[in-house]
Amino acid sequence: MSDQSELEKLLQNNRDWAARIKQEDPGFFKRLSQQQSPRYLWIGCSDSRVPANQILGLDPGEVFVHRNIANVMSHGDLNALSVIQFAVDILKVEHILLVGHYGCGGVHAAMTGLRVGLADNWLRHVADVALKHQTLLDQVDTESLRHARLCELNVIEQVFNVCQTTVVQDAWARGQPLAIHGWVYSLFDGRVRELGMDVAAQDELQPSYQRALAGVPPKGKRDE
């Protein structure tokens, strides 16, 4: 299929989707165009297999989304910080969902030292997580399970980072309702696993962090 044919197919897909939505809900696009008032900010991986709205079962306009390779929250990333600030201060979201996924290629590259190019510098954040928790990871028998454990540990650490941003700290200080949650999505069954990393106030951060780390199983799958 030529590039032009592929683009034409995408455009036709868009027309079909718009027509179907309009038939199912004639007022949908009018409502959508007037405002967005999401309750959730999703910070997830750029992986094309992890679409936020579909996983949550939400329509356009119901979730604000930021994605990057391996769902990293770096304090030097002005893009991510700007998204969080807009979501918290302007949109007044009530929940920030930091969502990783099992089978993450970025996490695997960081774990194994696989060079992928410029992104190696970004994935250094995940490699640092692996170094921080090397003792736990060394207890895991197989590479596939070690990969899964690092996906979980990376989410826990990135939630901690989100909670440490000035935006979140200021929101809590002024009493704004805001909770941050750490989840991992499974490509194998479409289900989200909660990691026990749920923080709604500054004094909850350390206890939640310690509980979440204690809940990372060195043996077996999380559901077992």
UniProtKB/TrEMBL annotation:
Gene3D superfamilies: Carbonic anhydrase (3.40.1050.10)
SMART domains: Pro_CA
Pfam families associated with the record: Pro_CA
Origin: domain of life: Bacteria
EC nos: 4.2.1.1
SUPFAM superfamilies: beta-carbonic anhydrase, cab
Catalytic activity: hydrogencarbonate + H(+) = CO2 + H2O
Keywords: Lyase, Metal-binding, Zinc
Cofactor(s) this protein requires: Zn(2+)
InterPro entries linked to this entry: Carbonic_anhydrase, Carbonic_anhydrase_CS, Carbonic_anhydrase_sf
Function: Reversible hydration of carbon dioxide.
Protein family membership: Belongs to the beta-class carbonic anhydrase family.
PANTHER family tied to this protein: CARBONIC ANHYDRASE (PTHR11002:SF76)
NCBIfam families: PRK10437.1
Name of the protein in its database record: Carbonic anhydrase
